[in-house]
Fold this protein.
Amino acid sequence: MLNQHKPFLKTLSGKKQDKPPFWFMRQAGRYLPEYRALRAEKGGFLAMAFDPKAACEITMQPIRRFEMDAAIIFSDILTIPMALGQHLEFVAGEGPKLGELNISKLKYDDDILQPVYEALSKTSAQLKAENYTNTALIGFSGAPWTVATYMIEGGSSKDFMKTKLFAYQQPDLFDELIEILTNSTAQYLIKQVEAGAETLQIFDSWAGALDAESFEKYSIEPIKKIISQVREKYPDIPIIGFPKGAGTGLIKFAKQTGITAIGLDSQTHPQWAAQNLQSLMPVQGNLDPMMLMAGGEKMQKAAALIMENFASKPYIFNLGHGIHKDTPIAHVEKLVETLRG
């Protein structure tokens, strides 16, 4: 049963709020001194993400400072490759590095992800204990296409050449990988809801790398299957889709995947989104993170323009991608002040 008194969840159910609920992607992270202090104590990223107590604490940090309307559990989209048996490490200054991929040896082990579920349960309890009774808890995953790019490239990529060539030259094997990711991600999200997540977000961070035909096959269709499997168990769970860089493909994505709301990147004009997407469902977004980093009057005007364009229907204010690590806290404070009117 959803806590419909929470503004975030009310918005997802299609009810417009007087002031937009808000949260920020990567709201828990390196721009916060309390996060940096905990990281120095605990060590690397994975050590914190797989320590339920630490992950709960990190999730709560921005809520205590800014009282966002939603907390997103501190984790990573690359937990699924780990659960499938692919080696993962985070190298300082370089980001994620994954081991050699052997699709025939991939086997999903949900036990590896138990710390994530425990962190969600702890955070759900902690929100109540600290009286953040209007704050919703978000669970999340990466989308199959995006996760596949990391598994094949062995890390981040600018052109996704290895992944695209793999998909074009070995389509049957690539389809097998997408199917494995689709089924394991659905199971992962179901377990997150069981652990206390009140809504879910699916990040297709590299959807913009796909051509139109591949976008339907490797972004829309797998996400549609994931949502169908999740809704078999939890028919009322709201799910936000974030296909970054999808452009006009956002319309088809919104209509075909079964999502509850659609997340917008900073390249999506709010006026276009209001006309073409907000008539279909609530939207979420989409201030440029660099605008937040820059701050000042221009940031406030940009936020005001987003709010003005989306004011007539339900929407959630967010960024078009994650907060940059060098963002001054004072700029976040000012944005929060602007959002609260």
The CA atoms of residues 64 and 132 lie 9 Å apart. The radius of gyration is 19 Å. The chain has 15 helices and nine strands.
